[in-house]
Amino acid sequence: REINYIRISITEKCNYRCFYCMPQDDDIDVTIAEKEWISSQEIIKLVEMGVQLGIKKVRITGGEPLVRSDIGDILKGISSIEGVEELCITTNGSLLYEKLDILKKYGVTRINISLDTLSSKKFKKITKVGDLERVWLGIKKTLESGIEVRINTVIIKGINDDEVEELANLTKKYKLDLRFIELMPIGEGRNYSGLSGVEIREILKHGGLELYNLNKQEGASE
C-alpha cells in the first residue's frame, strides 16, 4: 500500500503518570535529558525527507508533545514544507487550552485528545495529577476553533468499562469522533485487562449506538 503518513514522537516525557502506562514509583524516571531530545531542526529535516518520499500527512506525538517549549517552532517549520497536506497532534489535553492558539496559528488540522473517563474522581485516579475540568476547557476551545477533534479512549475492566456508552454519546452532543484504543499488554499495561473490540461493539449495540471502524483509514486499534 501507499505510505503517505508519518508519526513523529518528539518527546517521551509526559506530565501525567497514568497507572497503565507509567511506573508508579516516583523514584523511577523513564525520561531522557532534554538536551538529548531530537531537535526542532532535526524534526523538520525528517519531515522534508519524508515528503520527498511521498509523505503528505504528519502526526506529532509524545509522551506529551505540548510540554516542549519549542512546539511552536516545530509546527511552524513543518507547516511551511510544501507537500504537507495534514498536520495533526496527539495530546493528553492538559496544556491544550493554553497552547491551542499556537496550534491553530501553525496549521494543525486535527487534534487527538486522550480521555479515558468523564469522572473527575476516576480521572485523578488514572492520571495521578490530571485536571479533567482543564482538559474539557481545552476540548471545547478546540471545537470552537474549528479544528477537527478526535477523542482516544482506553477502556479498562474495573476502571471505566461502565462508561462506554457515556463516552460514545459525546459524539451526539459534540462535533467530534471518538475512538476506542486497545489496551496494549506491555509495560504497566500487562497488569490490567482491557475490553476487546467485540465486547465494546456489544455494549454499543445494546445501547443503540453505531460503531464506525476507523481501522480501514489509519490502521488504528479499536
Folded structure, characterized:
The chain has one domain (5-207): Aldolase class I (TIM Barrel). Helices cover 35% and strands 15% of the residues. It is built from nine helices and six strands. The chain has helices at residues 40-52, 71-79, 96-105, 120-127, 132-145, 164-168, 170-173, 197-206, 215-218; strands at 5-9, 57-61, 86-91, 110-114, 148-154, 177-181. Strand 1, helix 1 (40-52) and strand 2 (57-61) form a beta-alpha-beta unit. Helix 1 packs parallel to helix 2 and helix 3 runs parallel beside helix 5 (132-145). It is globular, with a radius of gyration of 18 Å. The protein starts with a strand and ends with a helix.
SSE topology:
Layout: E1 5-9, H1 40-52, E2 57-61, H2 71-79, E3 86-91, H3 96-105, E4 110-114, H4 120-127, H5 132-145, E5 148-154, H6 164-168, H7 170-173, E6 177-181, H8 197-206, H9 215-218
Parallel strand pairs: 1-2, 2-3, 3-4, 4-5, 5-6
Pfam family, one: Radical_SAM
InterPro entries: Aldolase_TIM, Elp3/MiaA/NifB-like_rSAM, MoCo_biosynth_MoaA/MoaC, rSAM, rSAM_sf
Organism: Hirondellea gigas
The top level CATH class name: Alpha Beta
Tell me the strand percentage band: 5-15%
Distance between the termini: 21 Å
Largest sheet: 6 strands, parallel
Radius of gyration: 18 Å
GO biological process, one term: Mo-molybdopterin cofactor biosynthetic process
Pathway: Cofactor biosynthesis; molybdopterin biosynthesis
GO molecular function, one term: cyclic pyranopterin monophosphate synthase activity
Protein name: Cyclic pyranopterin phosphate synthase MoaA
